[in-house]
Amino acid sequence: MSQTFCEELYNIKQQDSPDLPGFCSVKQPWIRPTNLQESNIMTPIFQIPNASVPKGLEVQYIYVGIGYGLEQNLISPNTIAGVLNVAYDVNDPADLQNAYDPTDPEIIKIFDEELGIWYFPSLLSKVALVDGNENEMMTLVSAIYMADQLLNFPSLTEQTQETTKNPGDPMTNFYQQGNLFIHCHDGGSRSVTITALYIYYKFFVGQYTFQEVYQEVICARYLEATNHVPTQGICENAYEVLSRYKELFPKPVCN
Questions:
Q1: Alpha carbon distance 26, 51 (integer Å)
Q2: PROSITE patterns, from UniProt (predicted)?
Q3: Which of 9, 126, 164, 236 could cross-link 85 (Cys pair, CB 3.0–4.6 Å)?
Q4: Which domains are present in the chain?
């Protein structure tokens, strides 16, 4: 009897080998970004297709990594506008405090002279997942929708225009557009799984299988992630989402 893919991942994890698994040699569903900074903390995984990049941006990327060391001097050079934390056991606001003045407890803001507003360079969001199969399926669905929302945040100009339209309920905080960083504790399990689910449903339904997309994200983070591959439990959760909630996701652009 052939093993399920989640069981295969479990066996790879038990081997604890730094060598790339065999499925990493198969044809890639997409070309990974190679012109961007890469580290054990943050790996560029995917470039958003031009047709899906929101107005105000020319290019946009998804990064995946770990939940520690997220200082602004790492986030800002990579234009990380959205930070999605999918680990219940990691809290990140303290890491994003003003790295240039440790005595300042505030997360740094930037002034836009043209619009005359102060804005946050990053918007933090959290959907807490455990690294096993105990998650409620709608929690994974929420994480996927949150990734889509962060990637499609309106431009600063659009945000100020919305405030002008609603003077009785003005926006109190503004945020820049940019790239998305999805992280968990070690950057190889929950964050990899949510990234694969999002990329699959948003861009590759009907073109590649979920397993092919999942393998590509796993391979991109394999050498940098402490745990190398997703746990069998979170993998099982992903496949449960596949079988139960197809109708809930954004319509894939490829369709």
A1: 27
A2: TYR_PHOSPHATASE_2 (PS50056)
A3: 126
A4: 5-245 (3.90.190.10)
Please name the residue that has the structure tokens 């449903």: 201
pTM: 0.91
State yes or no: pLDDT of 210 exceeds 70: yes
Distance (Å, whole) CA 197 – CA 72: 27
d(CA 88, CA 58): 33
Per the document, the length of the chain is 255
The tokens describing 44, both together, are 């560029």
Q: What average pLDDT does range 6-30 have in this prediction?
A: 87
What does the chain look like in DSSP terms, one character per residue?
A: -PPPHHHHHHHHHHHT-SSPPGGGGSPPSSPPP-SS---SSEEEEEEPPGGGSPTT-S--EEEEEESS---HHHHGGGTEEEEEEEETT---GGGGS-TT-TT--SPP-EEETTTTEEEBS-EEEEEEE-SSTTS-HHHHHHHHHHHHHHHTPPPHHHHHHHHHH-TTS--S--B---EEEEEESSSSSHHHHHHHHHHIIIIITTTS-HHHHHHHHHHHHHTT-TT-S--HHHHHHHHHHHHH-GGGSPPPTT-
